Amino acid sequence: MSFDRELIEAALVLEMIPASGMPELARDALEAGLGGPTIRYIATLEQPTSFDVAALVPKAKEEMGLREVTKGEAALRVGKLLAKEILARCGADNPLHLGCAKQFEWLWIKGGHPQELGSLGTLCDEIDLAKVKGQTIAQIREWVTERLRALSA
What we know:
Number of helices: 10
Helix content: 55-70%
Mean pLDDT: 93
Radius of gyration: 18 Å
Largest sheet: none
Strand content: under 5%
Number of strands: 0
Order of helices and strands: HHHHHHHHHH
Number of domains: 2
Low-confidence stretches: none
């Protein structure tokens, strides 16, 4: 992982970085020119547990210059990046996989149901309903793609 402050702030708030991933995050911070005793210490840990890093995270975040963001803001940041990545993979030979809706549902729930992700947070149910109503997979892919484009814009 490269050191992307906004994404890291979001991932930490959404608990997407497990304790075992904290040494890699600390090493990425060091490679990005950030330093501090807590960052350097975390970088040396091998397979830490939540107990090992829980008390260190606030100081490490301070040393990395990370700020606190709301869960809703964090979910939106991750959702925008996810939408861009999904759209970048889609093409004539690789159509949109509707299973991506589960990821947005998770983000919407984990983020506390932010309004900005509402149109994608309930996508799983909407896809099921569209199938019941007789919409084709191509039609469903088309409107899901439009929602992803709207979010990633």
